[in-house]
Amino acid sequence: MVECAKHHDINYPESNMPHITITPERFSEEIQGRTFSDVLNDPEQPFAEVLQFFNDEDRQQRMEDSEIHHDRPALAGVIRELESQPAIDRFLKNKHARRSQRLRQAVGVVVRMVMEHRGWNKTGRKGSLGVRAARKDSSNAAHNKGGLAFWFIRAERYERAEGMPFRSVRERSQEIVSRQTEQPPAQK
User: Fold this and answer.
1) What is the reported pTM?
2) Whole-angstrom Cα distance, residue 137 to residue 141?
3) For each successive 10 residues of the chain (188 residues), what is the average pLDDT?
């Protein structure tokens, strides 16, 4: 991660990036979005509701806040609200996990489009959203038994192009351990 000059500024300003509106046309023009034409064109899939959900400016800000202030995937900032949308919940609950997987993957593309528009880059790492329950019956939809999300397991992590305002707990811990190993033991 890039060290940022505003690292210790508690009053780090929120993003001033304009929110993005993702239309079905914009989604299908995006290189990865094109691969989800089945989701976009399937009237049974609640993809219009997904787009409407993510086009909200406050939700887009909460996605950034999730990365900045909570060191969690952007999707973690809105996942509980997303899963509580009636049409989305109904689809995920009533479809086999393989069929709903395409919708969940398309959600990941929408999240990436939002975050990149707002000045964020993918890290190539995933963050946890839930812990999958053991599947007893393969005909039922697979859901989580713990975590933030009921239907989503992992989500992409992002970082600001200009660097993150705060270091992660892992980075801070490594710094302390590094300093302790560099210093000779205290004389008694």
Assistant:
1) 0.80
2) 9
3) 40 65 96 95 96 97 94 95 96 84 96 96 93 67 81 92 74 79 68
